[in-house]
Amino acid sequence: MSKLEVQEGESSWDNGVDECNYWKIGKYEDEFGDSTEEQFLCFNCSGKFSNSISEAGPLTVEIFVDKDEVYFKFYTYKSKQLIKNRGLFFADVKFENGKTVSFALNNQGLGKTSIVKSSANPKQLRDIFLIDGLIKFHVVNDRQHPTAEYNFTYDGQAWDFEQTIQEIGILFDE
């Protein structure tokens, strides 16, 4: 069982992680529903999505960080409905100073098991959250002819992220 499958079909706010503008600490569950000692961080962002059915629909994005990886979950219509598009996604990130970075994401499942996992290494993604100011994300399922588009803004604080990863002992290889 992979780590995030324990939350299959549930958003982190159902698991004691409230929707907020700061990083929260959660614990994974084992196959019996008992909390393990392994912890993760979670941050919720709001945004808009568009696809062939909806234009500028409400979007909630959860960002998960654990000792091994950084994950994103996309919920459409501010519900527990995870995106169903499977395959490669492309993310462009823009900082307040105008600098941009790009990376690929891979949606590894369909429906409730959908987890969008970054192909960038955890340190590269961690560094994004160590920059103060608004950070805008633009994610599409195809660079040439996108049929799904997700836009959201991260407005967390670098000190909060850094303090919280230190609190639970998450270390990233340099």
**Contiguous uncertain segments of 5+ residues:** 1-19
**Architecture per CATH nomenclature, i.e. the level-2 architecture:** Sandwich
> How many structural domains are formed by the residues?
1
The Rg value, from CA coordinates, equals 15 Å
Q: Into which percentage range does the β-strand content fall?
A: 35-45%
Largest sheet, strands/sense/barrel: 8 strands, antiparallel, barrel
The portion of residues assigned to helices is: 10-25%
What series of H and E elements makes up the topology? EEEEEEEEHEEH
Number of helices: 2
Total beta-strand segments? 10
| N/C terminus separation | 28 Å
Structural class: mainly beta
CATH T-level topology: Immunoglobulin-like
Q: Output the strand order for the largest sheet.
A: 2-3-4-8-7-6-9-10
Dominant shape: globular
Under the CATH scheme, which class? Mainly Beta
* Chain oligomer state: single chain
The overall pLDDT, averaged over residues, is 80
